[in-house]
Amino acid sequence: MALSKLDNLYRQVILDHSSHPHHHGQLQDGETVDLNNPTCGDVMRLSLKLDGNTITDIAFDGSGCSISTASASMMTDAVIGKTAGEAFELADIFSEMVQGKTDDRQERLGDGALLSGVAKFPQRIKCATLAWNALKKALENTNGSSEVANLSGHCEI
């Protein structure tokens, strides 16, 4: 497949996640975090439910650009059913990837790996990482596991 056709396929997947986001909405109960990106005005509310240390449900709502929305949709798909520790690890892999540090671990991100091209546009990195930072913050707030406490990182935008 020619590179331009592959790029177009990647763009289509990103646009599909942006236009028809997965796990979009709000959860009635669970941990909820609000974050925003003052640089571009993206606003996100992320809610998640844990059963023990496992993410059993997750949803996001808010307003944002196509990269922010697509990234949130892809993130929810990647982390549902994962432990808090696994979710933190995926968030770190994603953060490294959009900063240009790629390796074979990014395949674990599912469709999220398609956002590796964001590294070429530094001004969009905060858009892409907003949902992942909200996830880390929500997991930190649960205080439900030593695994979360040991893996928590910075959630600054």
Automatic annotation (TrEMBL):
<dbReference type="GO" id="GO:0016226">
    <property type="term" value="P:iron-sulfur cluster assembly"/>
</dbReference>
<feature type="domain" description="NIF system FeS cluster assembly NifU N-terminal">
    <location>
        <begin position="10"/>
        <end position="127"/>
    </location>
</feature>
<dbReference type="Pfam" id="PF01592">
    <property type="entry name" value="NifU_N"/>
</dbReference>
<comment type="similarity">
    <text>Belongs to the NifU family.</text>
</comment>
<protein>
    <submittedName>
        <fullName>Iron-sulfur cluster assembly scaffold protein</fullName>
    </submittedName>
</protein>
<dbReference type="InterPro" id="IPR002871">
    <property type="entry name" value="NIF_FeS_clus_asmbl_NifU_N"/>
</dbReference>
<dbReference type="GO" id="GO:0051536">
    <property type="term" value="F:iron-sulfur cluster binding"/>
</dbReference>
<dbReference type="GO" id="GO:0005506">
    <property type="term" value="F:iron ion binding"/>
</dbReference>
